[in-house]
Design brief:
alpha+beta; Immunoglobulin-like; 4-stranded antiparallel sheet; 4-stranded mixed sheet; 8 strands; 49% helix
Length: 243
């Protein structure tokens, strides 16, 4: 009986040891399954901000490009809309001076920055910094070159003519033009002159034709009178010659 008792002691010990191991394994599995969602959530939270950062798509003018004249503005395109707070675009000219003016303009996924007028030819550098939707800042740089300078807009003085020439509405110009040129007297309209000349010529032509007709009539009368006298003389001499 003592041997039976001594033989049963190791068996009970082994069973208790196996039960402890099983319990520990179940506790570890339970803890692992409980921590798995928390670990996954943490990884998702860490990866989400990285995926929400804005990504540059392109710029206008393109980086390293050459344009004919300096543009009126530069534009930066992103995959996602940017936030106005903290967004800044700085453009420097060939001499290193800042030529950007005003605040950046955000439209959809583009950010535009206006430039000054009458810019010279040369290299331009653009430094930009935008704020993503998640609040993180994204920055970068690009450059471009302009072949020629911008043509200046014509001023009001140049468009109205030389500064020394008086305008048509100036009183001095009116006085000078009046003093230098003689005052012309009123003349008869050309139509009236022509009518007067025609009316004056008509009586003279009628008088000429009257004289001609009168001369012809007088010549006819004289001729008829001479012919009648000659015939009468002839008739009077005829009987006298017969006797």
């Amino acid at each position: 009986m003592r041997c039976a008792i001594l033989g049963s002691v190791p068996l009970a010990s082994r069973r208790r040891a196996t039960g402890r191991k099983t319990t520990r394994a179940l506790v570890g599995l339970t803890l692992g399954l409980g921590l798995l969602p928390a670990v996954g959530l943490g990884l998702a939270l860490v990866a989400a901000p990285a995926q929400a950062h804005d990504v540059l798509v392109g710029t206008t003018p393109a980086d390293g490009s050459t344009v004919d004249v300096p543009p009126a503005k530069v534009t930066i395109e992103f995959e996602e809309p940017a936030v106005a707070l903290g967004t800044e675009v700085r453009v420097t000219g060939p001499d290193g001076s800042v030529v950007s003016t005003g605040d950046p303009e955000l439209v959809d996924t583009s950010v535009s920055q206006a430039l000054e007028e009458d810019l010279p030819a040369g290299s331009y550098a653009v430094t930009w910094r935008v704020t993503s939707q998640d609040g993180h800042a994204v920055s970068g740089t690009f450059a471009f070159t302009a072949k020629t300078s911008q043509a200046p807009a014509p001023s009001a003085t140049e468009s109205s003519g030389p500064a020394g020439s008086p305008s048509a509405d100036s009183p001095d110009a009116s006085d000078d033009s009046g003093a230098g040129s003689p005052v012309s007297s009123p003349t008869t309209p050309p139509t009236s002159s022509s009518a007067t000349s025609s009316s004056d010529t008509a009586p003279s032509a009628g008088a000429t034709w009257g004289v001609v007709v009168a001369g012809l009539a007088l010549g006819a009368v004289v001729g008829l009178l001479g012919w009648w006298r000659a015939r009468r003389r002839r008739d009077g001499n005829g009987p006298t010659g017969q006797s």
